[in-house]
Amino acid sequence: MEAPCVVPLVKIEDLLAKCGLDSGSASQFIEHCTFGKESVDLYDCPLVKIGKDNVCLSIFSACAHDAVRLVLSQCGRFGHQFDEKGACLEVKVREVFEKNGIQAVELKRRIDGHDLQIDCLFVWENILFIVECKNYALPSETVQSKHTFWINQKEAAAQLVRQVAILEQNPQLVREELHRDVQWERVVPVVLNGMPFSLPGLHWGVYFYDLVSLWKFFASGQIRCVNEARPSVADVPHKGEDTRLWAGESPSEKDFFASVENNKFYELTAGEFVPSPLPFRVSERLMVLTSIVGRSEMVLDEMVRSMLGDDR
Question: What residues form DSSP beta bridges with 132?
């Protein structure tokens, strides 16, 4: 009896050709996605060779339904950086603040033989925020990939610290670039990642934030976790308690700093994810047991609360 996950290699090549890949690109794609000696797990490499002409598609990766994350994970595995998208990220970040009534500018000068290049700076009430935008790919599960990612983040922090030091010695540059007389009591340096990566607290002299969290902060003054139940169990999602991001009706510089210092988005969702086992058959005599990380399932009490409210 043939296992349902075993597919002829030629079928995958034909499918990739229909998607616009030439023969060489299709072969390279299959090679990168095939599990081998240097692979860490089946998430990055969901194809397993079965003889010369067939491959086995890992069911748990196929069930993830998130091709974007698979591609980004592969980019991290090979250390690919998105430097060519850096300028686009910087523009997007400045636009977010401008749309919310906060003047944000970039600053490029040469001071005493040193290049000063700040992607985004703005004065919000009594705080000067200095933002360095980075588009590093998220790391894979390999130790080398994680190490490289942390080194890149640390280097970004060191770069930003140097820029802040130059700017603190030449504060008039801020006023010249903003074309107005502004004052501030403190400086907050932020490495803002294009990928969803933030850290709580101060690290290497800077804070770490990300673009998605920035969008969500200005979108609403509150957030909540929504744990969607399976359709066969319930037709309504379980909604957690609201978490306020703004102290008032509109965001303030104190609210934004609090979000940068301790990102509530990750704090709320971290406890929702749990690993669960997933077995699948490779052949009549071989079964593979792996695990996937997903949201925890709703218990009966949560379902009742989601449908009737807490005052049932």
Answer: 191
pTM score, two decimals?
0.66
Q: Look at residue 202 in the predicted model and tell me its pLDDT.
A: 95
Tokens encoding 198: 């933030």
Q: Are strands 273-281 and 287-295 parallel, antiparallel or unpaired?
A: antiparallel
Q: Report the SS3 class of residue 88.
A: helix
Give the model confidence (pLDDT) of 223-274 as tens digits.
Answer: 776 654 444 444 444 455 678 899 999 999 999 999 999 988 877 766 666 6
Closest CA to 141 of 149, 132, 129, 133: 149
Number of structural domains (the chain) is 3
Residues 134/119, Cβ–Cβ less than 8 Å: no
Give domain status of residue 225, yes or no: yes
Task: Give the model confidence (pLDDT) of 163-196 as tens digits.
Answer: 999 999 999 999 999 999 999 999 999 999 998 8
Does residue 71 form part of some domain? no
Give me 253's structure tokens. Answer: 């510089």
For the chain, the straight-line distance linking the first and the last C-alpha, in angstroms and rounded, comes to 53
Structure confidence by residue, pLDDT tens digits, 12-50: 888 888 888 888 888 888 888 888 877 766 767 778 888
Task: Give the span between the Cα atoms of 160 and 260, in whole angstroms.
Answer: 16
CA dihedral (79, 83, 84, 90) positive or negative: positive
CATH number for the domain that contains residue 154: 3.40.1350
In this structure, are residues 29 and 20 in contact, taking their beta carbons and an 8 Å threshold? no
- Note the pLDDT of residue 168: 93
Structure tokens at 120: 């985004």
